[in-house]
DNA sequence: CCATTAGGCAAGCATTTGCTTGCAAATATA
DNA sequence: TATATTTGCAAGCAAATGCTTGCCTAATGG
């Protein structure tokens, strides 16, 4: 145990991604999160623990409940890694876009009014 | 095997992220990629296979070599999932930014020329 | 044609993951 | 105080992951 524990690993699991999406709306305690999944409370609890260890959520104790607050900023790490790649696919998109516009310019008869 | 095979899973592994980064520069064949890692060729080969199954790279056979071409567009899936979250952390960033500017406006003596 | 080079396939193995069930601790409520 | 609710802890387990080594196939070049 005590294995790799980073944001990429954290969002690799679909259940954990769902939990993060849920928390985008509002903070929730463990049980109310667990109710929304078909797996056991303990399974959800483990996911929460992992998310917390990765600093993706903040656990705040309120009485006997523990509220999970999303820390979206942490996902900026993923966005940061993605950024140099995004330039590539956006470039390609731009190229396709130019080709498309050029084609429409050279084929005004087929281009029609819609796009 | 034959398990979950999606982009999130693919980029969860640090070696695979490195491979993708390498391929951003130029397409490379399997062996030249493998040389740049401390693990065995077969281990790298498996990573390549996974990346290919996830449509993150394109394998083109040239003679006895197999060139790996990056398909960056596929990463747009991750960017897409990230997008609604990014709005959250950017909002917070914008708020901090406004606070910062306001502070500088109200403390022109301490603000200095640098930032 | 034969040696070299690029790569695939498969068995084997230690570790991690994701899940379960059972039980204990702490807080809230009747 | 007795009981219900929220959560944590731990053992156990099947499957997935990441890696290795050994051997096989195919294309290239002398």
Give the topology, please:
Two copies of one chain form a homodimer.
Chain A: H1 7-10, H2 14-25, E1 28-29, H3 30-34, H4 41-53, E2 57-62, E3 65-70, H5 76-106, H6 108-111
Antiparallel strand pairs in A: 1-3, 2-3
Chain A binds a DNA duplex (30 and 30 nucleotides) through helix 4.
Task: Walk me through this protein's architecture.
The structure is a homodimer of 115-residue chains. With 115 residues, chain A is α+β, with helices and mostly antiparallel strands. Chain A folds into two domains: 7-74, Orthogonal Bundle (Arc Repressor Mutant, subunit A), CATH 1.10.10; 76-109. Helix content of chain A is 60%, strand content 12%. Chain A has a three-stranded antiparallel sheet. In chain A, a hairpin with a 2-residue loop joins strand 2 and strand 3. The radius of gyration of chain A is 22 Å and the shape is elongated. The model of chain A has no long low-confidence stretch (mean pLDDT 86).
């Amino acid at each position: 145990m005590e294995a790799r524990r980073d944001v990429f690993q954290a969002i690799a699991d679909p259940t954990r991604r769902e939990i993060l999406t849920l928390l985008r709306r509002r903070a929730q305690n463990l049980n109310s999160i667990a109710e929304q999944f078909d797996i056991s409370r303990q399974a959800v609890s483990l996911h929460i623990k992992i998310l917390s260890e990765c600093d993706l959520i903040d656990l705040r104790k309120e009485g006997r409940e523990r509220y999970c607050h999303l820390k979206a900023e942490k996902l900026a790490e993923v966005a940061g890694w993605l950024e140099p790649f995004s330039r590539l696919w956006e470039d390609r998109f731009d190229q396709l876009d130019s080709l498309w516009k050029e084609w429409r310019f050279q084929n005004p008869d087929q281009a029609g009014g819609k796009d």
